[in-house]
What we know:
By secondary structure, this protein is of the alpha+beta class. The protein has helices spanning 9-27, 62-71, 80-83, 113-122, 139-151, 161-167, 171-183, 187-194, 207-214, 218-228, 232-241, 247-254, 260-287, and strands at residues 31-34, 53-57, 75-78, 89-94, 98-103, 125-129, 132-136.
Amino acid sequence: MPEARDVPTSARVALAHAAVQRLADEAGADVLHIKGPAVAPGLRPWASGGSDVDVIVRPEHLDRLMTTLDRHGWRTETTFEAGSAFDHAANLFHPSWGLLDVHRLYPGMERDPSGAFAVLWEDRGRADIAHVPCVVPDPLAQSLVLLLHAARTPTGGEHPDVPANWTLRTDAEREALRVLAARTGATVGLAAATGDLAAHAGTPDAALWEVFTGGGDRLDEWRARWRTARGPRAKASVAVRSLGVNRYYLAQRLGHEPSRGEVAREALGRFAHLGRALGRRVAGAVRR
């Protein structure tokens, strides 16, 4: 097979979706394809095939899918715990197919990932991608997924996915989206996407969304992650990881695998950044 960089992006992404569906079938794993060529016509204001593959896997089928992907040459670049503030996706790479994000949950639906997946699976549909029938959420659920993604993607204004999936929807369609959000535990995330987050201000579920929609630095994000985490073990994990160095992202920035010295300097830099952020907050409190 040619390397990923030798194939046009749109063709490679479509073929990668098809390949992942075939491997999910082999593994007996339920997956839902989202974004890129999996999106129903009319839900995005531009024709976007994306640059990678995104799938949500039924949580109970995660291990079997990851084992099959590994056996077929997909290399894990970032683990679920290192990928984002929601600990929701692992990033994999294949030399022929490119990048793949495997979501064990979808941000905004994280309180009951198994229950949320079951709801999305109920009304699933199929989209032919590279002549392979790939399983996708129904159009209403796709709108919810796109809105939740928009809520955590700062753009300096209204995200371009919001009008087609919310503003230009009918009252009945918006109510159906609210009902679906309630069934999947995504009420707060939907509120963040549609400008109604104030109704949930101060709640643990709103903490991370407030950072994404209102702005904030890394300290704000980690404080929000601490508030959102439930139970002593989850909070301890957040505390430990807040000072760790993500070697994958550091390698991406440096253009090579970081040395011990580079990792150490990055760690010291994080402590320095934390000190400056705390200093700004103390100074602000004194001025007030």
